Amino acid sequence: MNLQLAKINKIDLDLAEITLTDHSMIIGSVAAFERAGRALDAMDSYSQWWWGDYLLYAEQNNLKTVLDDARRSLHRSTIYQWKEVARYYPPALRHPRLHFNHHYSAFYILGPGSDPAKAEKWLARAEENEWTVGDLREAIRMDSRRDEHDPGPMRGIIRITDFVKISRWTAKVHADELPPAQLEEIRASTGPLFDFLCEVHRKSFSIK
């Protein structure tokens, strides 16, 4: 691990009074129970990075990894994807406050050949705005579609569920709470939809 990242919190997996076997965890005390919880949380949150850096180290030093002898049910393809994400983001570009899946999503949508600095800018926005992984994906895709003058994923196919999703989202937000840039983007992208809905609702009041 890069030593210049001393500012990142060190993860201490204290397993005192905890016995791990291939099919059980034996906990010896309440204090050990609390440590076990912290260890499991850390493994769930950071294990993708650990796998990625482990495999990169093996690659760089021509070493055999535990994957060579691991159980066949292990999802090796997924783990090797973690290695590529770790390769794409040097430790200095990783955001500890964001989940690995934030990093993976930007990597996947922008493409492995893209500039990591561009992905890092998106991650900084995600951290600043407290975006979920889904929020980040949608923001990057909307930006890409706007640059390509692409109207979006529906491409002429409209489903009732699309309107349901929009209705549920709008029920949770207020226009005066949205930043001006986002309001303008919504206006530009939903103009035709607004006209269509006005026509639909106008028909419900028409007199034959």
Secondary-structure blueprint:
Blueprint: E1 18-20, E2 25-27, H1 30-61, H2 76-88, H3 100-110, H4 116-129, H5 133-147, H6 160-172, H7 180-203
Briefly say what this structure is.
This protein is mostly helical and 208 residues long.
Which features does this protein show?
two-stranded antiparallel ribbon, mainly alpha, elongated, 3 domains, 59% helix, 2 strands, 208 residues
Shape: elongated
What structural class is derived from the secondary structure elements? mainly alpha
Name the strands of the widest sheet in spatial order. Answer: 1-2
Count the beta strands: 2
* Rg, alpha carbons: 24 Å
- What's the helix-strand series? EEHHHHHHH
**Mean pLDDT rating:** 79
Helix content: 55-70%
Q: Spans of 5+ residues with little confidence (pLDDT < 50)?
A: 1-7, 150-157
Distance between the termini: 74 Å
Proportion of β residues? Answer: under 5%
Main sheet summary: 2 strands, antiparallel
Helical segment count: 7
Could you characterize the architecture of this molecule?
With 208 residues, this protein is mostly helical. It has three domains: 1-94, no CATH class; 99-150, no CATH class; 156-208, no CATH class. It has helices at residues 30-61, 76-88, 100-110, 116-129, 133-147, 160-172, 180-203, and strands at 18-20, 25-27. Strands 1-2 form a two-stranded antiparallel sheet. A hairpin with a 4-residue loop joins strand 1 (18-20) and strand 2 (25-27). Helix 1 (30-61) packs across helix 2 (76-88), helix 3 (100-110) crosses helix 4 and helix 3 (100-110) runs parallel beside helix 5 (133-147). The protein is elongated, with a radius of gyration of 24 Å. The protein starts with 17 loop residues before the first strand and ends in a 5-residue tail after the last helix.
